[in-house]
Amino acid sequence: MGETEILEPVAELMEEMYVNMGPQHPSTHGVLRLMLKLDGEMVTEVVPYIGYLHRCHEKIGENRIYVQVIPYTDRLDYLSSMYNNFGYVLTVERLMGLQVPERAEFMRVILAELQRIASHLIWMGTFGLDLGNFTIFMYCFREREKILDLFESVSGQRLNYSFYRIGGMPMDFPDSFLTECKSFLEWFKQRLPEYDAVMTDNIIFQKRVQGLGRLDQKTAIDYAISGPMLRGTGITWDLRRNDPYSIYDRFDFEVPVGSSGDVWDRYMVRRREMTESVKIVEQALRQLPPGDIMGKVPKKLKPPAGDIYSRVESPRGELGFYIVSDGSEKPYRYKVRSPAYVNLSVLPVIGPGHLVADMVAILGSIDIVLGEVDR
Amino acid sequence: MEKLVERFYGAFAALGVSSVVPQVTLMVAIAIAMTLFISVSVMFMIWWERKISAHIQVRYGPMRVGGWHGWAQSIADGIKLLLKEDIIPAGADRFVFALAPIVVFAAAFAAYVIIPFGPNLIVRDLNIGVLFYISISSLAVVGIVMAGWSSNNKYSVLGALRSAAQAVSYEVPLVVSILGVIMMVGSLSMVKIVEAQQGIWFIVPQFVGFLIYLTAAIAECNRLPFDIPEAESELVAGFHVEYSGMRFAIFFLAEYANMFTVSAIATTLFLGGWRGPLLPPWLWFLLKTYFLIFIMMWLRWTLARLRVDQLMNLGWKYLLPLAFLNMGITGLVLVLRG
Amino acid sequence: MVPLSHYVVLGTVLFAIGMFGALTRRNAIGILMALELMFNAVNLNFVAFSRYLPVTLLQGQVFAIFVITIAAAEAAVGLAIVLGLYRNFKTINVDEIHLMKW
Amino acid sequence: MTTAHVVFYLLAAFTVTAAIFVVLAKNIVHCAIALVFAFFGVAGLYVLLDAEFLAAVQVLLYVGGITILLLFAIMLTSLISARGVRIMNEQVASSALVVIIIFGLMTFASLKGIAFVGPPPPPAYVTASLGRLLMTTYVLPFEAVSILLLAAMVGAIILARREREKD
User: Does residue D123 have a cis peptide bond before it, meaning omega lies within 30 degrees of 0?
Assistant: First the structure.
């Protein structure tokens, strides 16, 4: 955060006034508080205040044994719980040097990519709301509902799945899953043009977001931006491709990038990533091998002393877990590098100079989830 | 209708009372009738909008209250709003706070005076007809600023100022787009305008004017592509954030009543008013008006919101010159025809 | 019909009220409002005379239209000046603005 | 006492009350709102004088335009919160004296100097003849006024524009 000046609640002038946006504001996507310094309608300064949803995630993690941390990771970025599980178990597995059976890897990828679609859908819907388009919200939630149905058939949960285990997966797919998943993908592919009709091809939408909140490549790298925000600037950096984990190196997919790093590019990157995720899921479903789903894991997880940092490409960017083990059952130090938090930090840079309405769009395009920002 | 009124006057004259009594009685009766019409049509419009939006969004909308497709939902909502506690924020200017919704509603209500629902089915065919609507609708802006200021809330002040700026700047293209029609008719009277559309509706020669009018009218109503004053993602709700219960209901009523008014004016000016085959005139008028309302709702549920500077650009840089061009060409054609 | 004198006296009353306001208000915007009142009083007289004079030539109404136009121009410029004053002095109370130079 | 009389007195009382409010109200926003009512009263009087067009213009311009401008200026200069502040300057007494003298003189002059004739029959269609007058006899002043408006608009924009700090 750095040091912030003490803001006066009532500005002397209307020409320069402070407006408090949030923590209870429909467009802050949770309990984020933004202090906006306004010059008329123009935002001259943005100061995000975070911590309203702080739950001592990391400290709790250090007081639980390794397996017990998994349910907590669900609550990090509660819109992509599968991916948080994925990242965490991957880290522990790497720390312990565990092997994961092939079928489990495929299951992980399928679920993770479905999760990415679901997460991007939510983002698209709420982004539409930010811009005043209500209909896209309902469309997106209709599709997300189907994904949640799939997840429910697999894990029994609709939001906080806790479905990944260290060393594999707890349960196999139910029998009906494969056909249901395939029919969903077919259906979903037909829905994508609908989104384009309502959002992408709509002239008002284009005019609203093009050239907005422009982020150049240097700033993006300086601020360690990752995920669609980084790819929007034109840098091809996707951990699934550049630092492959699990079995991502076996799939054929494109990494969509933008060119100017504005809100439009971020939108397009996410929109195209949905198509790519569909491709990955289709390939994985086709190649899904039979076999075990749980590797050989000791009853008591006691990783060797040492530390490890491992990262995955969550829907929001680089989700990293840093674990220091002292050889006991509990992590000695447990740290989460959450992409939403890091991406949010660039808001004071790209926010000023826009109108309040655009601030909302820019904030929306960062795609923050406060559970992850505050942890 | 006129005969009825004459008979009414005659009955009073026979009783030997001064002519003021039947005049006042008639005025009150018309006012009550208009209030009833506005309430019923607004309730219908709210229910209809909820149904339309629901079906656009693959939902059903209200289904329970009243049985068939939740037709009584608006009535239930209205009763709920009327019964709610009347909250006035602590820092508010009580008098202005209470006055604002009345001003806004009065403006919406007064405009119904000149709407010609059918031949002879008009409260008063003023000879300044259209101008009356234009001037009276500007009153609503004052009410909005009053509401925003008296709530003692930054957001509502900001929303009110935006609303005022928007209404004032879109009033100009609105008026200029109407001028084409007025020039063709040579009168401001609503009845004369409808009568002038005997052969061809003005939407054909004045298509550009119609489009400009519709755009500006949607902006005047603060509806979705132009609902910046109420943008809930930015301002939470605009000038009426602090209003609740009855007072909020009045704002809501005025908003929908306004929507009906602008559509009715568009029907009169461009779509031939009550003219149409087979069906009775008033039904034609309502059908056309509700068709325009449907278009407005349709737009609302498919488009995203404009930004405030884009809104101003559209109004001043595109609509206004286009409207002037339209007016100039209309004038030229009229002069050349002689 | 109401006699003309009623309108004329009403116009005078309004004019006097407006004048009082213009002379005593401290707030520059208040002064502008009082000025608008005076304009209205004058307009009322114009319109009344135009209605009551034997030959209805409507000159009075034409003049009233011109007055309204001037009033609009005056309001726009006046308010712009008020904004300028506020920006420089942080007040729009005219009796506090007595510097010739700063 | 005809209906016209009753309406006139009601409107006159309404207008004068509103005008007094404009001048005396403590809160400047209340003044502006009272001003709206005063304008409305005057518009009503115009209707009574068979000048409907002018009444509509009055409402359109004064209520829809000038009052909104005033309210904008008030909000922008944000003196709203200054509620307990003195609103009158020191010259209340002398102003009152001057105003009363002028009022007396004007009333005297207008009551003495005008020959009061009964009103002629109402004109047929005011709006059309008004338009014709503006476009024939008074076309030069009309154009002059429009240029004045343009100049005022440009002037107002230049005055109100704030120079952005160059850095």
Answer: no
